[in-house]
Amino acid sequence: MALEFLKPIIRLLPEVKAPDRAPPLREKIYWTAAVLIIFFVMYHIYPIGRYPIQEGFNFVQMITASRIGSLITAGIGPIVLASIFLQLFIGSKIIEMDLNDKEQKRIFQGAQKLLAIILSFFEAAIYVYTKAVPVMGVGVPAGNVIPFFGSLFMTEIFVILQLAMGSIILLYLDEIVAKYGIGSGISLFIAAGVSLAVVQGTFGVLIPSAMGYLAEGGATAVPLAILAMLPLAFAFIVFITCSYAEGMRVEVPLVFERVRGVGGRYPIKFLYVSNIPVILAAALMMNFQLIARTIGTSSFYIGGVNIVSFIAVVDSSGRLSDGLLYFMTPSFPNPVVAGYGTYVDFLLHSSTQFFYIPEFFHVIAYILSMVILCVIFGTFWIETTGMGAADIAAQLKDSGLLVPGFRRDPRVIEKVLDKYIPMITILGSIFVGLLAAFADLTGALGTGTGILLTVSILNNMYETLKREQMFETYPALRNLVG
User: Fold this and answer.
1) 320 close to 340: Cβ distance less than 8 angstroms
2) Which residues cross the membrane (predicted)?
3) Among 471, 458, 469, 474, CA closest to 184
4) What pLDDT score was predicted for residue 88?
5) 352 with 326: CB under 8 angstroms?
6) Does domain 1-182 have CATH number 3.40.50.1240?
7) Helix (H) or strand (E) holding 254
8) What is the DSSP string of 225-239?
């Protein structure tokens, strides 16, 4: 299947014009800062017709750069999902496209934009109709609240439109950053959201709580103050661990065939697929939670048994409380709010209300689910995106590189790389899965997935800044590397 039939629609989509010249570094920083300011403004604006609620879904917000109830309720979720869907379709050959061809690549990017816009409206509708973002006149405590426009349906449509436009604006802000700024807009939004959560959590919750315990005095004042600061300590541990892992690598020696004695090393990082496995696993879990909100209150009986209750059970607030999807997602109480004593007691001694399964089983099931999903996605990703041993061997052969002491044959390079890439992919996927689960279970500020993403994003942004600075110092290098 090809995507040429979408060309008439793609031509109608607005597009950010590419710059006529490469913007200087200072100008790129200004554009990036401006986009970041717009993101934070939208982060604090609420759609007209939305009924104020207590905000939650921190896990979802971290990975989608969103804030439930604001204009960016769906965040970058539609953009990421559109990219994942199309990449997987191309990798599995459901869609036949050559992304090395400029015209087909342009069609692919247009199709991705179109799908992201469609998903923006779809996800916005889910948030509204599942009452994750309630509108005026729906479930409000006061009986005399009149729906906006005097019609409940029109109010819902108006709120959906605003939420969808929030994600579409992020889509075009991402395009601005890609063409005029530094790095990726999606990465920038994720890092900004996580950083804001860490700062707000530290200065808005942890420090006031610790100071309150110290002000009360008594024998338990200091221990309670230390416990209050543990989420920040756990976030720091995850940050340092991930930063250290980013520097771990295996280097395969290579030489140029035509230049005797000249060569280098091909680095295979421990986090070879970066944080892609945990991004995909987290995105899947996010959709599990949305599915649970959709079906959790419905019924489907087979032999007198409600099958839906085995899949998902939600409480009166729409939060997952039991079922298969509950045990696969990090639906735990927030230890920052509940306190670590209450949190640990809940995990060790509580059980689900519907099936009476101990909560510590939930902990084990979630860790296993995260690790298994990361391994599956990590392995699948390298095989569908040209990162496997065979693809890398072909690229190195085309560059005139070979393994010292062996004849020029891509099968030789592939055999050497095959000793490392599959194993490192599995080990790296297990590592990021365990680290994300550890942070989620300990209540680390920013969540495990958010911290992992932020470390990788900041590292990539630092490398981009160094490269841009080098290009400005030596302009001829930009022409040399294209």
Assistant:
1) no
2) 29-48, 68-90, 111-129, 149-173, 185-207, 219-245, 266-284, 290-312, 324-343, 363-382, 420-438, 444-462
3) 458
4) 73
5) yes
6) no
7) strand 249-256
8) HHHHTHHHHHHHHHH
Closest listed residue to residue 207, CA positions, set 236, 231, 238, 237: 231
Supply the pTM of this predicted model. Answer: 0.73
Which residue from 356, 291, 355 is spatially nearest to 329, judged by alpha carbons? 291
Q: Are 293 and 314 in contact (CB under 8 A)?
A: yes
Q: Which residues of 233-270 are buried (b: 16+ CB within 10 A; e: fewer)?
A: ebbebbbebbeebbeebbebebbeeeeeeebeebebbb
Alpha carbons 86 and 104: distance in angstroms, whole number: 13
Per DSSP, what are the bridge partners of residue 176? none
Q: For residue 295, what are the contacts with CB-CB under 8 A and spacing of at least 6? A: 308, 311, 312
CA distance 162 to 159: 5
CA dihedral 377, 381, 382, 384 (to 10 degrees): 140
What pLDDT was estimated at residue 313? 80
Residue 57, SS3 per DSSP: coil
How high is the pLDDT of residue 111?
Answer: 87
Which segments of 65-151 does DSSP mark as H helices, in order?
A: 77-91, 102-129
User: To 10 degrees, what angle do helices 389-398 and 410-417 make?
Assistant: 140
Q: Are 300 and 279 in contact (CB under 8 A)?
A: no
Instruction: Name beta bridge partners: 266.
Output: 252
Q: DSSP string covering 306-369, please?
A: EHHHHH-EE-TTS-EEESHHHHHTT----HHHH-HHHHHHHHHH-B-TTT--BHHHHHHHHHHH
The pLDDT assigned to 201 comes to 83
Q: How are the residues of the chain apportioned to helix, strand and coil, as percentages rounded to the nearest 5?
A: 65, 5, 30
Q: Give the mean pLDDT per block of 10 residues along the chain (482 residues).
A: 77 86 85 93 87 59 78 86 78 72 81 91 88 68 56 85 93 91 84 85 85 83 85 88 84 69 73 80 76 75 77 75 83 76 84 82 91 89 77 75 65 80 90 88 80 80 76 57 44
Tokens representing 149 are: 């426009």
Tell me what pLDDT residue 31 has: 92
Report how far apart the first and last C-alpha atoms of the chain are (Å, whole number). 32
Q: What is the pLDDT of residue 258?
A: 60
CA distances to 187, 257, 282 from 248, rounded to whole Å, are 22, 28, 24
- Assign domain 234-482 one CATH number from 1.10.3370.10, 3.30.540.10, 3.30.420.40, 3.40.50.20: 1.10.3370.10
Domain ranges of the chain: 1-182, 234-482
Could you tell me which of 371, 292, 282, 287 has the C-alpha nearest to residue 324? 292
